[in-house]
Design goal:
The protein has 501 residues and is mainly β. 7% of the residues lie in helices and 47% in strands. The chain has three domains: 139 residues, Immunoglobulins (Immunoglobulin-like); 91 residues, Immunoglobulin-like (Sandwich); 255 residues, TolB, C-terminal domain (Neuraminidase), CATH 2.120.10.
Length: 501
């Protein structure tokens, strides 16, 4: 029990806190309930009712002395039958229950402030009666009352690792004077979602590859020679082994995947016919060509039975629309500037595009515009460059900003909110169908991979880990798969990866 108390106090950090007190009080209550049940079920107990309370006295320390360091609180307890437990209290907080004589508690005064503190003991007999000692008041007077510091150097917060990948833990611990702590004074813990903390090892450097999938809180606890503790924590994500399938296998360049509304097919751009056209494919089948034109067609977006895409067939980069069954495409934009990267509104009445519309020096880089596919008003969504928009089913539009970070803006407020903050380039955002996450490609790992930002947790985790380039993610309508472009086999092809929760 004493060992558990020490562990709980250390884990919850340094001096006792309200949270640790609650845990220890819960332990005390649990022990008392257990003792009561034991006594009521003990057939060898006294038959007559015992109503006499135990007597209890704190024999050390005496009142009104100064204490420092580690002291042993000693208690004398007597009962007409038998004392079965003694609880120790500091400043009214239950810290430890002793269940066998001698009745003692080791008090680390360094975990308390330099001021007056009260000590109390409560003794229990096997009939459930208890007696309380008089308070003993002492003054804690330690020369050093500052805890050590713990600093996690690696891994960085919100870093992702593949399941089974080696995770490097590197940290530093210093005492209150700034001196380095010993290796055995630095202890690492991991706490997975819904699990108890697990000790990983000690020292300034560890390499582990045994963490389960999901989020883990990595904690470094530094303990100095006075048994004071300091701590630092970081969160990492372990990606489960995902099912990855190659969808296209042609020797040419194939990219820009998007899903059909029923999630059964993928539209993509391919130059297998000699120039870039739009092709359709069902998983496991051969692709079929949808557009046929000497000019390049790319950036498809699917809604209902219609597909919009970017094309040079008018001599300028414009948005066109075609039925999934083929036929003659219809030109949607006719201006003289480049219109790129269409994404549908939920009702299929509008698209958002990245366009150089507007003219003038301020428009030398594209902005986001909302325009009708049929009849309606055109509206400028951003006044600062925006690329690769993806429109959620509501009003939110995700896009890549001028600084190559991901932003979200609303067709109602038109105020961009930055959601990624990395020096590396973040591109090609794609909303999950429930709006809870955004997949995007990033070079933040030193290689272009697919990452996922969680809206409500405000955390980012890595999804793909291949040394090849993984880019242009597109979330499936059921939220279980992400299509993406990759040259992991030496040539740009379309792949899909199952998304683990």
């Amino acid at each position: 029990m004493n060992q558990f108390k020490r562990y709980a106090t250390v884990w919850l950090g340094g001096r006792p806190r309200k949270k640790s007190i609650v845990i220890i009080e819960w332990i005390t209550s649990f022990v008392m309930v257990g003792l009561f049940l034991f006594m009521t079920c003990n057939k060898e107990g006294p038959t007559a009712a015992d109503t006499q309370s135990p007597s209890v006295e704190i024999t050390f320390p005496p009142s009104n002395i100064n204490v420092a360091g580690v002291i042993t609180i000693k208690v004398a307890a007597e009962d007409n039958e038998k004392v079965v437990a003694v609880a120790f209290y500091i400043d009214g907080d239950s810290l430890f229950v002793d269940v066998a004589p001698p009745w003692e508690y080791t008090w680390r005064t360094l975990e308390y402030t330099n001021e007056r503190h009260s000590i109390k003991a409560k003794a229990f007999d096997q009939a459930g009666n208890w007696g309380v000692s008089e308070d003993v008041n002492v003054v804690v007077e330690n020369e050093i009352n500052e805890p050590p510091t713990a600093t996690i150097l690696l891994p960085q917060d919100s870093t992702s690792f593949a399941l089974g990948e080696e995770v490097i833990l590197q940290g530093d611990g210093r005492d209150a004077s700034g001196n380095p702590l010993r290796e055995d004074q630095l202890t690492w813990f991991s706490k997975g979602e819904g699990n108890m903390p697990m000790q990983l090892g000690t020292g300034t450097y560890l390499a582990i590859d045994t963490l389960s999938s999901g989020w883990h809180t990595i904690t470094l606890i530094a303990t100095d020679d006075n048994q004071l503790t300091g701590r630092d924590s970081t969160a990492i994500y372990i990606t489960a082994e995902s099912e990855i399938l190659q969808v296209t296998h042609d020797g040419n360049s194939e990219s820009n995947p998007c899903w059909s509304p029923d999630g059964q097919r993928i539209a993509f751009a391919s130059n297998r016919s000699g120039n870039y056209d739009i092709w359709l494919v069902s998983i496991g089948d051969q692709p079929t060509q949808l557009t046929v034109d000497p000019a390049h067609d790319w950036d498809p977006a699917w809604h209902g039975s219609d597909i919009v895409f970017t094309s040079y067939r008018s001599g300028n980069a414009d948005i066109w629309k075609i039925s999934e069954g083929g036929g003659n495409p219809v030109q949607v934009t006719t201006d003289s500037v480049a219109d790129l990267s269409p994404s549908w509104s939920a009702d299929g009445e509008y698209i958002v595009i990245s366009s150089y519309m507007g003219g003038g020096e301020a428009f030398q880089k594209p902005n986001l515009w909302i325009l009708p596919v049929g009849v309606g008003d055109t509206m400028q969504l951003t006044t600062d460059p925006g690329y690769g928009p993806d429109w959620l089913w509501g009003e939110d539009v995700a896009f890549q900003g001028r600084d190559q970070n991901i932003y979200v803006t609303s067709s109602a407020s038109m105020v961009p909110v930055q959601i990624t903050w990395d020096p590396a380039a973040d591109r090609s955002p794609s909303w999950s169908p429930d709006g809870d996450a955004i997949a995007f490609c990033s070079e933040r790992s030193g290689n272009e991979d697919i990452w996922i930002w969680s809206r409500y947790a405000d955390q980012i985790r890595q999804l793909t880990f291949h040394s090849g380039r993984d880019y242009e993610p597109a979330w499936s309508p059921n939220g279980q798969w992400i299509a993406f472009s990759s040259d992991r086999n030496g040539n740009p092809d379309v792949w899909i990866i199952r998304v683990q929760p």
